[in-house]
Amino acid sequence: xxxxxxxxxxxxxxxxxxxxxxxxxxxxxxxxxxxxxxxxxxxxxxxxxxxxxxxxxxxxxxxxxxxxxxxxxxxxxxxxxxxxxxxxxxxxxxxxxxxxxxxxxxxxxxxxxxxxxxxxxxxxxxxxxxxxxxxxxxxxxxxxxxxxxxxxxxxxxxxxxxxxxxxxxxxxxxxxxxxxxxxxxxxxxxxxxxxxxxxxxxxxxxx
Length: 207
Known about the structure:
This protein is an alpha+beta fold. The protein has helices at 2-32, 76-92, 112-122, 137-140, 180-190; strands at residues 41-42, 47-49, 54-55, 65-70, 99-103, 128-130, 144-145, 147-154, 157-164, 204-205. It has two domains: 1-33; 37-205, Glutaredoxin, CATH 3.40.30.
């Protein structure tokens, strides 16, 4: 009887141990999978632009898609990409794929009034939206500034087609070899498969 009780106890220990390990694994998977993946349908949002108006993706009636970029004022990486973001907007807005920038940062220098100043100084051509309360960036799963999500407008909603970096050289725009976002947008507009659907976003961690 004593042997049976010991074996029973060991069996229960193994079962609970396995369940606990599975729970940890599931938790880790949940962390990894937070936010959108390529192929997911992104939920629309309503955020305040630097002009004081509320902006949603639904406002762009004739858009074919969106280059949504999580960025901010203070991150050196984000600053390095501002001109390239305006270049993307200039190239693709007329083709139906505008840039929509969102600031999720709570750092000093990234407040709404600071955003208005930065947008005026740089002459941003795209909406620069304030993620007040940091409600939107976790939904997307953005972790860096800048972090890009290319969306394609479809009958079922705005489908995520690309996630990651703008290109492969944040330090020098003249030495870029791979323009990830441009290649993704060109393929999307041509109805072709996007060759590189994800890349590693390089930038400051969102605080």
